[in-house]
TrEMBL record:
Domain GGDEF: 239-367
CDD domains associated with the record: GGDEF
Pfam families the UniProt entry points to: GAF, GGDEF
Enzyme class label: transferase
SUPFAM superfamilies on file: GAF domain-like, Nucleotide cyclase
GO BP annotations listed: cell adhesion involved in single-species biofilm formation; negative regulation of bacterial-type flagellum-dependent cell motility
Cofactors, names only: Mg(2+)
Protein name: diguanylate cyclase
UniProt xrefs under InterPro entries: Diguanylate_Cyclase (IPR050469), GAF (IPR003018), GAF-like_dom_sf (IPR029016), GGDEF_dom (IPR000160), Nucleotide_cyclase (IPR029787), Rev_trsase/Diguanyl_cyclase (IPR043128)
Cellular component per GO, a single term: plasma membrane
Xref: SMART domains: GAF, GGDEF
Catalytic reactions of this protein: 2 GTP = 3',3'-c-di-GMP + 2 diphosphate
């Protein structure tokens, strides 16, 4: 079945007033120009068998064309809308349009449509409607001889039309579900991103609250939080440990002579030297203006002194426009959280002796631990 190349002259029908709504309904199915599907092809085949015609099709009426979702006995994919009998059929959505002889119907008498090389003479089509009543197209049968369907064939064609409508609704429902799934996934992703952003912001706030902004080391608030956590205290003080107090030598003079900007750089250089010299499980705290406390869990006094020496040497090599040094006091303690204040005092006394002895040195307090 094919259309001849010469123009047709169907009697013009005015565009229905609800055409824009009908077109929107058709677009909602997203079916135009899709690949053939067995379910639709089977219904067209049944239409041919039921009505005994050489050709049948499922035609969808687009803005300026009719496009065939399924066809049998037809060798074209689409035709101009102005040449489509189906366009007349959808003007009466609730009725089967049957044209016993196109030559005797003034609307189609000049139609130039061939089926198997012979002029089309018979047409019967059932409009395909949406639940809202908009006609999207038809399922139709055509023949090359004038004829009429019997009542059983008419009813059968209507049944096939309802099956096409069911397929279309299943498609629309599946499309809707896919869209909802995409929207839900996008929403879930958005919520997860928002949650992750909230967690990240909260962590940043926690970090700012517990860390010194200049050096990045823990501050006193962070140290107090650690002391309130029994698990952390058990890890830090559950074995022989050492405490180290570090003080920047002549820091007031650094600020007075070189300015507070370079004074800040000096503190950052000391903090960097500390972080490069200790382990990931050690704890460093900016305890005062130019004073840093370091907790070394599982570290004996001699090893802690070596850590202090590494820090001192790194500070001396700091890339600053003036020489910088630190004094370090070290003391060790046994696994007993009740003794930590005493160990701290001994480290502070060792620091005092380091400064009194000329600074730029590490002094260890070797006072015997008292149980």
């Amino acid at each position: 079945m094919h259309y001849r190349s010469r123009p047709l002259s169907l009697v013009e029908s005015p565009v229905p007033p609800a055409e824009s709504r009908r077109q929107a309904a058709l677009q909602a199915y997203d079916i135009l120009d899709t690949a053939p599907e067995q379910a639709y092809d089977d219904l067209v085949r049944l239409a041919v068998m039921l009505c005994g015609t050489p050709a049948a099709m499922i035609s969808l009426i687009d803005d300026d064309r009719q496009w065939f979702k399924a066809k049998r006995g037809l060798d074209v994919e689409q035709t101009p809308r102005g040449e489509a009998i189906c366009d007349h059929a959808i003007r009466s959505p609730g009725q089967l349009l049957e044209v016993p002889d196109t030559r005797l119907d003034p609307r189609f008498s000049t139609l130039s449509l061939d089926v198997g090389g012979q002029p089309l003479r018979f047409y019967a089509g059932v409009p395909l409607r949406t639940p809202a009543g908009d006609a999207l197209g038809t399922i139709c049968v055509v023949d090359v001889v004038p004829r009429e369907l019997d009542e059983a064939q008419r009813e059968g064609l209507k049944v096939l039309g309802r099956q096409v409508e069911n397929l279309l609704e299943l498609r629309r429902y599946a499309l809707k579900q896919r869209r909802l799934l995409v929207e839900r996934e996008a929403l879930a992703q958005g919520l997860e991103e928002a949650r992750a952003d909230l967690v990240r912001r909260n962590e940043q706030l926690q970090h700012r609250a517990h860390h010194d902004q200049l050096t990045g080391l823990l501050n006193r608030v962070g140290l107090a939080q650690l002391r309130e956590d029994p698990a952390t205290m058990a890890r830090l003080l559950g074995a022989p440990y050492s405490l180290m107090l570090i003080d920047v030598d002549h820091f007031k003079q650094v600020n007075d002579v070189h300015g507070h900007l370079l004074g800040d750089r000096a503190l950052q250089a000391v903090a960097d030297a500390v972080e490069q010299s200790i382990r990931s499980g050690d704890v460093a705290v900016r305890y005062g203006g130019e004073e840093i406390l370091v907790v070394l869990p599982g570290t004996r006094l001699a090893d802690a002194v070596e850590v202090g020496e590494r820090i001192r040497r790194r500070v001396r090599r700091a890339p600053l426009p003036f020489p910088l040094s630190v004094s370090v006091g070290v003391a060790s303690g046994e696994p007993d959280t009740r003794q930590v204040e005493h160990v701290f005092d001994r480290a502070d006394q060792a620091l005092y002796r380091a400064k009194a002895s000329g600074r730029n040195r590490v002094i260890a307090d070797d006072t015997p631990n008292v149980a």
